[in-house]
Amino acid sequence: MIIGIIGGGQLARMLALAGIPLGLKFIILDPDKDACAAPLGEHLCGDYDDTELLKVMANKADVVTFEFENVPSSSIAFLSNSVDVFPSEQSLETSNDRICEKTMFKDLGIPTVPFANVENEKDLNSAVNSIGLPAIIKTRTMGYDGKGQYVLREAGDVKKAWDELAGVPLILEGFAKFQREVSIIAVRSKQGEIRFYPISENLHEDGILKTAFSMPDDAIQAKAEGYAKRILEHLNYVGVMALELFDTGEELLTNELAPRVHNSAHWTIEGAVTSQFENHLRAICKLPLGNTEANGYVKMINFIGEIPDRAELLATPSLHLHDYNKQARPGRKVGHATIWSSSKLK
Q: Contacts by 159-166 with C-beta closer than 8 Å and gap 24+?
């Protein structure tokens, strides 16, 4: 069976590494000739909206998926005319627009921070008066790893933010006073089977995920599963989905969803019976889902910019290193490590 993947970064790489033992083959579309997933399949080097390359993928692949949200929805629509694509175009479009996403949460009765659409400076001032400060203004589309957003802490920040972000559709979101950031990773098969991984507790630096901890038996697990289940069924979703949440101590607020395998669940490679990557492939290939139970406790550490000395890292016997084979660069995710324990980690 041949799997098409749009995007050739580390998520595509880990999908391929999980799929090769299952006998799966891969065809990968990415404009970077050095895409880190390229050595693991046939590499179609070109833009994500290159119709000739999309035709090649549609003709060769049995099913297509994508590794990140900023794929043109027109490309998914084009492929969907001749090959199954999971998750669906609707799932991608919903997650790609923060207003659509937040509105869906609200319509499904899933708590979120207050939010408002911002089309012009008058809208922004009105939204700030209604929601209050502190707040966060974000681009409605294309933001990731803290990009495309501006924290408003005082009145003087409002004009600065508008001058920096004006010209694209925006959303203002209320500031959540949370005790911790968490995510729930869910997988749903084409047949409607749903499974959940234990929640991840996540720590960020400069808007980029730095560490994630597996949290088996956490008190908010059932509530997080309930939110995710509503979204999966509403979207008729197929594949792995991540739902990012704020735990305020009093309630659980949704932040955003990612229609793909997710950085906060990299710990599942060593820390769960079946990794998120294998289960995503099982779901889109219409295979039975694997067990999502944790087998111990795992801490995942992202390496940003460069990977530390390998010998020093591997001196920790329970550490597993994942090198993405990417050129070192400030702010770039170039690898991660997981540390396994039979007891809770800090």
A: 161/124, 161/137, 162/121, 162/124, 165/137, 165/139, 166/121
